[in-house]
Amino acid sequence: MDNEKIIIANWKMKLNLQETLELAKSIKAKFKDLKKGEIAVCPNFISLLEVAKILKGGKIGLGAQDVFWEQKGAYTGEISPGLLVEAGCKYVIIGHSERRKFLMENYEIIHKEIKAVLQVEDLIPIVCIGENWDERKTDRRDYVLYDQLQQALSGVDVVGDQKIILAYEPIWAIGSGTAIEPSEAEYAHKIIKLTLNNMFGMEMVNNNFKIIYGGSINPKNVKGFVGLENLDGMLVGGASLDADEFYSVVKAVL
């Protein structure tokens, strides 16, 4: 994969349609002169088509917050990878910790979703992994990350220039307002990189994978993460809901 940093905004279910469109316009304007790096926003499903129109011709990519593992069929309420591409998406978040917690998604589901996304062209999965507080407290983080990566990616064929983004999100930090210590993130990213190297080989990992951090990143703490080894970008939640705050985060990273 290229060396460009990527910053992805996850707007979750925080905004209504009008608020989403206004924020998309503000962010597009903020980054009209973007010279380096990649930026993407992930609005709610009902906003995708309208946000795609707003972002067209600009520097910002479009992503979705979830996807189903089949391309077509009798699956009420679900969205296929192909439909996301039709809507203009370049990225899709898979297995966010909130879906694992509230909707009982497991890594068998996540594995199937990754494979489905890789079957369509021009759609990049953003695969979320991370430990909870009990797992961190009992020093099981390394095993948890290894196990999540194995379940999510074992048997997944990555061919050509297909890309996968791994988002390390310590569950206990999400929405807390406090990011983990940068040194902890650096260590976790090293474990992820080593595991990926064992699974896919160093050359493929360097060419096809990115590792990013998510979990209460904001303009005040982001500078501590800049320059960390094996950090290819950020997945930003709350701070991405304000165009000025998001701009500050992005400029610090890029």
Description:
With 254 residues, this protein is α/β, with parallel strands linked by helices. It has a single domain, classed as Alpha-Beta Barrel (TIM Barrel). The protein contains ten helices and eight strands. It has an eight-stranded parallel barrel with strand order 1-2-3-4-5-6-7-8, surrounded by seven helices. The longest helix is centred in the last third of the chain and has 19 residues. The two termini are 17 Å apart.
List the helices and strands and how they pair.
Layout: E1 6-10, H1 17-30, E2 38-42, H2 48-55, E3 60-64, H3 81-86, E4 91-94, H4 97-102, H5 107-118, E5 124-129, H6 133-137, H7 141-153, E6 164-168, H8 182-200, H9 202-208, E7 209-214, E8 233-236, H10 243-253
Parallel strand pairs: 1-2, 1-8, 2-3, 3-4, 4-5, 5-6, 6-7, 7-8
Shape: globular
Distance between the termini: 17 Å
Main β-sheet: number of strands, strand sense, barrel status?
A: 8 strands, parallel, barrel
Number of E-state strands: 8
CATH T-level topology: TIM Barrel
